[in-house]
Amino acid sequence: MKSPSKVLLRFLLLSGLQLANGCTVFVVGKNATIDGSVLVSHSNDGEFDTDPRLVKVPAAGHEAGSRRNVYFSPESYPRYVGKDRNVQEYYPKSNEQEFKPIGSIPQVEHTFAYLEDTYGAVNEHQVGIGESTCSGVFGAIPLGAPNGTALFSVDQLTQIAMERSKTAREAVELMGDLAVNHGFYGAGEFEGTAESLAVSDSQEAYIFHILPDPTGYSAIWAAQRVPDDSMAILANMFIIRQVDPNDSENFVMSDSVHSVAKEYGWWKEDDGLLDFTKVYSDGEYAHKYYSGRRMWGGYHLAAPSKNFPADYTDLQSDPVYPVYTKPDFLLSAKDLFRFHRYYYQGTKYDLGGETLAGGPFGSPDRWKEGPAEAAVKGNWERSIGLYRTSDTYVVQSRSSEAMEKGGLGAIMWFAPASPNGSVFTPFIVNLSDIPPSFRSGHQQKFDRTSMFWAACFAHNVAQLKWSYAVKDIERRQDHLEDVSIALVQGLDIAYKYSKDMDYVEDAYLKNVEKVVFSLWSLSDELMFKYASGFVNEPDNMSQMVGYPQWWLKAVKYEDGPPPPPTTPKCCHPEKGGPSEKKHSFLRVETIADAQHGLSMLTGKAAMRHFLKQN
Ligand SMILES: *[C@@H]1O[C@H](CO)[C@@H](O)[C@H](O)[C@H]1NC(C)=O
Ligand SMILES: *[C@@H]1O[C@H](CO)[C@@H](O)[C@H](O)[C@H]1NC(C)=O
Ligand SMILES: *[C@@H]1O[C@H](CO)[C@@H](O)[C@H](O)[C@H]1NC(C)=O
Ligand SMILES: *[C@@H]1O[C@H](CO)[C@@H](O)[C@H](O)[C@H]1NC(C)=O
Ligand SMILES: *[C@@H]1O[C@H](CO)[C@@H](O)[C@H](O)[C@H]1NC(C)=O
Ligand SMILES: *[C@@H]1O[C@H](CO)[C@@H](O)[C@H](O)[C@H]1NC(C)=O
Asked: Where is the signal peptide (predicted)?
């Protein structure tokens, strides 16, 4: 085949497409965490239309010869409507049409239980997955669409991985093989044509990259093991560099990785190890630093001693960040909660600091572009914490030690809406179901029973006086998350000795209720405390805190209306002179005062003053 240039391919794929969503993933090996857990996280950063529901897919037995349907995944709400997989939350409601499959594959005898948001997230064997869309040099069209060739989206692959895998390695190989055999398509018009995942189990973690092959009927994929003492960050761009097909302990990949690159003249044997990102990535999407800034930010928090540069020429050809690195300290799930709330505070990229764009109270949120941004070209920094996130989670795949202490499998820490205004709340796969506050609810319908709206409400009310309110929010998050961490440990032990799953389930559900209630209450408290520009505390009401000095200067407060004019000398018969300004104001509280004042003062100014006061 003739070799079309990469530039041409990019043009064909991307012309006219707006690429601006994204997701951030952290993955941490077991020797780099405080308790030997393997951690994988994911933020689902849509445009206020992604589906924030957390649901449980129950384990199931299947008849020999049955098929597993595969669907097109819209990612917006509802992500699926139908009865497959037996999730009540997905059953058709009035006006909803069941989704039609775009194909099917042979079913297995038994499928495992798991939790999912838009993607399969964690299963009963502690296999966890975090997702981030990437650019890729090839794109494909889903089956069912005109000229469609590919059966699998990453959403469907992650579900099937959950249903069938007991380890991260099995999950990676299964997803790769399915995509090679049936084709792979990317998230579509608004995002990249490729995908990356971090996949964990209780022992190890892999980074997985996938894109369609040039025919559209197959796929190109590679996975690299994250060393136990290291962490990695995925931020909407591939990160895997040199892949070594002979190092099967650390790499797994499709044959197409090398065959396609060779066919297109992008790599030959003499070149040595193939650089996956250089060959198959299409670089950062949306704008420069869209991916790199988040990688820098994550490493700035976890490995400040490495001092990775914040600047580079082109992240694809200039790999300033390694595939993985060793954090400076052992990380916990709670550290990842903090990382996902990061707006680069305290650095020169701080979105919430003293910038005019954030307003007087330093809101870190920069809303989506409208018509004005079409005229005034520019970009905002892309932070890790983001207002338009539909949900963020951290999967904690726990060590054999933790399991021996009674551990009830992996913990899923789930926070709907923007993580900076939300609370990470623990779930286990063995709960009989996810409670309605987390299982239902979405952006198209305001709902006071949903955790999504509780968190979205708090985040938005905080805009009244962000730099103040964020402190109240942080205190509440800290409290509720610490209580949850203690609860998880306590319930492990309780289960070990009692084997009473009903008790455990009840305690998890009560904790969920408490979190949702507390978050709604927090919104009311914030409204009370910051209403109408004051700071109101029950024993110190209507504190007039004003605006910060830097902001007053920036908006030229000093150039506003001047102080009232000084009464001319002529009107102060007794003393007069500029130093006697205060006498130009006469307090007039009674008619007697007025008469007295009038007897002292003469002239129109005094009369005006009198008339105004009465
Ligand atoms: C499908 O492919 C054919 C042949 O390449 C092309 O003419 C047609 O426009 C395509 N249809 C769509 C909807 O893209
Ligand atoms: C991880 O920890 C184990 C047990 O403490 C140790 O044997 C192993 O060498 C460590 N591996 C790495 C890569 O640090
Ligand atoms: C992989 O192993 C094969 C066979 O042992 C060898 O020919 C090849 O050069 C090796 N490739 C690399 C990249 O080391
Ligand atoms: C939430 O965002 C604000 C930025 O305005 C920041 O000050 C605060 O520390 C963030 N929370 C966390 C836990 O990082
Ligand atoms: C958790 O669920 C699985 C089936 O999904 C079951 O085999 C296991 O016994 C359950 N564990 C507990 C502690 O209930
Ligand atoms: C009330 O708030 C103001 C401004 O925040 C503060 O200066 C003052 O000390 C507070 N008074 C009491 C009694 O706490």
From this structure: 1-22
Q: Does residue 205 lie in a domain region?
A: yes
What DSSP line would sit under 372-424, residue for residue? HHHHS-------SS-TTEEEEEEEEE--HHHHHTT--S-EEEEEES-GGGS--
Q: Is residue 350 part of a domain?
A: no
| Final residue belonging to a domain, choices 400, 422, 451 | 451
Convert the pLDDT of each residue in 182-193 to its tens digit.
999 998 654 689
Q: Is the pLDDT of residue 589 over 70?
A: no
Residue ranges lining ligand 5, Cβ < 6 Å: 59, 113, 124, 408, 430, 501
When divided into structural domains, the chain yields a total of 2
Reported as a single tens digit per residue, the pLDDT across 148-157 is 999 999 999 9
Rounded Cα distance between 11 and 7, Å, is 6
Which residue's C-alpha comes closest to atom 10 of ligand 1? 147
Please name the residue whose Cα sits nearest to atom 2 of ligand 5: 430
248 within a domain of the structure (yes/no): yes
416 and 565, same domain (yes or no): no
Domain boundary among 451, 476, 501: 451
Q: How far is CA 302 from the centre of its chain?
A: 18
Residue 34 CA: distances (Å) to CA of 30, 329, 405, 480:
8, 9, 16, 20
**CA–CA distance from 19 to each of 46, 133, 282 (Å)?**
11, 10, 12
Compute, in angstroms, the gap from residue 546 CA to the centroid of ligand 6: 13
CB atoms within 10 A of CB 76: 17
Q: Whose CA is nearest to atom 3 of ligand 6?
A: 543
Query: Does residue 99 fall inside a structural domain?
Result: yes
Q: Ligand 1 pocket, 141 CB below 6 A?
A: no
CB atoms within 10 A of CB 151: 26
Residue nearest to atom 2 of ligand 1 (CA): 147
Q: Classify the C-alpha dihedral 566-568-573-574 as positive or negative.
A: positive
Q: Give the range of the structural domain holding residue 146, as residue numbers without chain letter.
A: 6-343+391-451
Inter-axis angle of helices 466-498 and 501-530, to 10 degrees?
A: 170
**Which residues lie below 8 Å from residue 246, measured CB to CB, with a gap of 6+?**
none
Q: What is the pLDDT of residue 192?
A: 81
Determine the distance separating the centroid of ligand 4 and the alpha carbon of 51, expressed in angstroms.
25
